[in-house]
């Protein structure tokens, strides 16, 4: 901790750590200062000049004593006003934010900022949530300086010339539209891309008053573009998926947790008239700070469409709408004669702990071993001692086996912080600093602190001191080499030797494991040995968002039970859409779905309306083992209810009693019986003792590579962005008789997909890649090409 | 004569910086060695770092790039024995309108600059130097690079220079047309291959400059002066100039004078001596002079101003600045509005766009307002608006470029306000100047 | 084929001037842009992309830097790109009229190239030769100084005849040698 210094802001004296910016000292003291360019977690640059304040400090004379004036240290005021964001406090500093001189400067700066800003607030999506609007009202009223008669209308700007006319509708990507006239050149977005994801896809072009932002890289190739919409202080960068959907004050906003990956980023879900219209990042210092991935932000358009709003029961071969009571009757009938031990319960990977508990209690009561959750990896993630993000920042060395940008996007952003040598931000009275002087533009990346190996090229690798793309399935050999049990696989000798040396020399090590490792028990066991040997903590990038929580509760198949990838029980409850083979194999099928689907129409006996993760109340556990809350947003989903209610119905139909019938009951039980701590605390129950129950999931020549996107998200703008192609090296394509642009039909676990072939130089030979888009990520299957030919 | 030397006509005054400028083959190593070249660096290495810094401090040399910060003091800010790579960077991005002194130093006496860089290298423990030269100076670039090659071949650059154990590598980096690169932190960004936005200070370049390493940036003339200070001693240098403005300086004259050009004179020489005795006097009536490059407030063409000594303090007292010593004469037949329109357009064009007051205020509003007044669209109150705009910009921008844009306009409004008022009231476009071109 | 494919030695020489780090490598950006500009007269999007690849950065970053500096051209220029200084001393020396003459004589504006591909024109800011105003720079060559009407036409004529700049004899004595001898120059 830096030494504390005392500073006086107007009439209040406060203590802040040395090195704090004047801006944060002002906020800490409870005063306000206007700003546009400063932003949490970004480097302060002093560009917008809104935060000009007057500062003065005492000085020491030649005798080493403070120069006094009337018995007090004399304050020497700086000749010019200082930008509060880039000025560090010093002991005894006096800061004035209220004098006429300061107000004159600030109001003048508002006027200059408005000089080229269009007056189109009534049609601007940012209206009502615009920093420029707010600051203009608070700091721009300048009657004192420019308005001789106080009865005149308020004067914010005297400018009567033509404003700059430039591109007002510049589409940067299907997600983001740029209005160049509105841009006030705060540089937040440009700095963001360089500093946070490290994708330099946006920059200023030209200079002076002609400066504008632009990208020469088509469609902003980054998984983290949407955050620039949140941080844009004006309506220059806008969310296309929410464009013109509502005024800001009309939204029904709910802060909850993103279930798009296992990191558990905080999001704000904005609904209007029962429709989910927009998702923004919310602040959660421990986890995502203020950033989220594009999948978590833009992948919501599917939620409003084609929902199952009432139970459906099969009558005369067709699914028809029904009441929950009628559904209960249909289930009771369907389960008649089915042995309780022959009922299978399968939850989605993003189920809450409450739902997991309900499933566990029910299957226990039934005495069935058929229980699981979708996306559970072949080796348990609970087998590893989890690292927290704070421990990650503190690590000396991090070894990644996987693709953080796709498997756990938030982790990529935290690695970005780690690789720049940053520590967790200070916590002041107002929270996170707005101008953290420890953060600078273009900080050198400390490459010696990171190594990365993945089965597919990944952007995180650019920060690694050693990295390589290996064939899927090579993880075990790679780890064996690191353990000294085997020679390094061909071509990996040098990087692995470097990693070994770094592991040996480092005290605090964090291991990051992707689905490729976790789905390969042999590799996962070696990873565990490596973690134990190097004292490393582990972050598991599981395909299921709540994998750690559901596993911790014990939601995996009992002895002889069928796992989520297998078929088995006679009667099944699926809280997601399983494979056709699994549906076929069962005699009675209850599908608990949010959306209608042809497979459900064909096979379901009863369909219950489900809630999306945005509509649930409950808790989840992220990859750190941190308890995170889910709050239901105001989305109209008809009679939909979660798995707790659905399983309650099942229990009633089967005539068993379970202690969990309501979500609140489940929460209470979790707290009382399972000692679940409060939200944001970490829950690290003992390993359940379960080890790999599944055969090696990684054989076959088709690798289902992890992506942050899920299948159901592919509607609207997402469909235009997410490219799904069958990728392979040029040599592999030749050996298969394929070439770029060929169309093939491919049998995937979740159905047949018609895909275009794309060759990618540098991919390992002999293997094909297809985006997994969900629970099957990191697994390999046999490539079954049904038909193919030139496009 | 006794007392300090404050006139180029003082018999004790001798040209040093420009002594060889214009001489045939002055840019070759042979010529330089024949005229006592590379003796100063030998002395500097023998005497050592502390002596060099002390001598430069004692000489009173102030940065000749325009800001006038004491060079020795700047060097003393550099940390010692850090084990890090230190850099000396020569700011040869001479872009201030009215300034063209450094160009001839590099074209005709490149070895003098190389030697100055070497001495600075001793002074700040730098083993690498960059000369950031403005991209348009083609001849200077050619002469510098060939001089550097000669110096390497002869052992004046590279490892173990002249067997002294001192090593120094020198590179030339060309700019590409951006005035802001004259600002030292913007220059560093440009050298690193980035957009030339100025960086925040602290950290100062001496703490974390080029690629995060301790760095000092000096003007060409300053570095060349160091050669002679080293050789002849601080006292020789301090014998010229006034009490607070020591030494000699390269003054430049442009505009309608008989002999515009560069004149090496002691600080404290009067404008009259420069403009009449050396530059031959005006060829047509002059109404104003800009004393030190376009960023300095213009002063009226009066006896009082002409008799003002050209040193930092005296010009300051008259409400302007010594700057780079580039004197521009503005003829009486040119409207001051037109002249300031041109200057404002220059700064507007060169604004990097980083901070609001410069981007919107200078590059946008001031340029727009001058265009409005200059094309006869001016309205009542526009002059007052311009004045209040200067208040809003000056002292509030990120770097000094916006200030540099405000000062000449403010100076013009102080001395020639009536021309602005007339332009607004006449409602006629200001007459374009230069109709006598042919 | 890439522009730099056959310039690997040159490229190595440029990289050798700067530290061997990712940041140091980036410093080669301006020399590379200049090289393309000199050889091809402009820097096409393909060249920007190529430079980005070599330096391990993005095309956006290259465009950001390129557009900041006035020397690099985003549009093709003529064989002779005439840059006319328009700042104060040159304006006093008649730069505006010189520009008008050039526009009239060549029939082009900024961004155009004469149909014969020979000329393009650009107003630039202070070139640092205020005492020999007005000044014109052709491509990356040393300045043409004290450009009177007669000298301008002689210059254009010489360039049209395919002469190299230093071969063209311009009427009147000006520039470097005059300054040194202290003879009359300028307006």
Automatic annotation (TrEMBL), chain A:
One of its GO terms (molecular function) is 2 iron, 2 sulfur cluster binding. Residues 250-307 form the 4Fe-4S Mo/W bis-MGD-type domain. One of its GO terms (cellular component) is membrane. Residues 101-140 form the 4Fe-4S His(Cys)3-ligated-type domain. The keyword NAD applies. Its main location: membrane. Keywords: 2Fe-2S, 4Fe-4S, Iron, Iron-sulfur, Membrane, Metal-binding, NAD, Translocase. One of its GO terms (biological process) is ATP synthesis coupled electron transport. Its cofactor is [4Fe-4S] cluster; [2Fe-2S] cluster. It holds the Pfam family Molybdopterin. InterPro entries: 2Fe-2S_ferredoxin-like_sf (IPR036010), 2Fe-2S_ferredoxin-type (IPR001041), Asp_de-COase-like_dom_sf (IPR009010), Mopterin_OxRdtase (IPR006656), Mopterin_OxRdtase_4Fe-4S_dom (IPR006963), NADH_UbQ_OxRdtase_75kDa_su_CS (IPR000283), NADH_UbQ_OxRdtase_ferredoxin (IPR054351), NADH_UbQ_OxRdtase_Gsu_4Fe4S-bd (IPR019574). Residues 3-101 form the 2Fe-2S ferredoxin-type domain. It is found in: Membrane. PANTHER family: NADH-UBIQUINONE OXIDOREDUCTASE 75 KDA SUBUNIT, MITOCHONDRIAL, RESPIRATORY NITRATE REDUCTASE. Belongs to the complex I 75 kDa subunit family. This is NADH-quinone oxidoreductase subunit 3.
TrEMBL record, chain B:
SMART domains: NADH_4Fe-4S. NDH-1 shuttles electrons from NADH, via FMN and iron-sulfur (Fe-S) centers, to quinones in the respiratory chain. This is NADH-quinone oxidoreductase subunit F. Residues 337-383 form the NADH-ubiquinone oxidoreductase 51kDa subunit iron-sulphur binding domain. Belongs to the complex I 51 kDa subunit family. One of its GO terms (biological process) is cellular respiration. The keyword Flavoprotein applies. It is an enzyme of class 7 (translocase). Its cofactor is [4Fe-4S] cluster; FMN. Its EC number is 7.1.1.-. It comes from Meiothermus hypogaeus NBRC 106114. GO terms for molecular function: 4 iron, 4 sulfur cluster binding; FMN binding; metal ion binding; NAD binding; NADH dehydrogenase (ubiquinone) activity; NADH dehydrogenase activity; quinone binding. It catalyses: a quinone + NADH + 5 H(+)(in) = a quinol + NAD(+) + 4 H(+)(out). NCBIfam families: nuoF_fam, PRK13596.1. It holds the Pfam family Complex1_51K. It comes from the Bacteria. InterPro entries: ComplexI_51kDa_subunit, NADH-UbQ_OxRdtase_51kDa_CS, NADH-UbQ_OxRdtase_suF, Nuo51_FMN-bd, Nuo51_FMN-bd_sf, Nuop51_4Fe4S-bd, Nuop51_4Fe4S-bd_sf, Soluble_ligand-bd. Keywords: 4Fe-4S, Flavoprotein, FMN, Iron, Iron-sulfur, Metal-binding, NAD, Quinone, Translocase. The keyword Metal-binding applies. PROSITE patterns: COMPLEX1_51K_1, COMPLEX1_51K_2.
UniProtKB/TrEMBL annotation, chain C:
Binds 1 [2Fe-2S] cluster. Keywords: 2Fe-2S, Iron, Iron-sulfur, Metal-binding. Its cofactor is [2Fe-2S] cluster. It comes from the Bacteria. [2Fe-2S] cluster binds at residues 85, 90, 126, 130. SUPFAM superfamilies: Thioredoxin-like. Pfam families: 2Fe-2S_thioredx (PF01257). Signal peptide: none annotated. One of its GO terms (molecular function) is metal ion binding. Belongs to the complex I 24 kDa subunit family. This is NADH-quinone oxidoreductase subunit 2. The gene is nqo2.
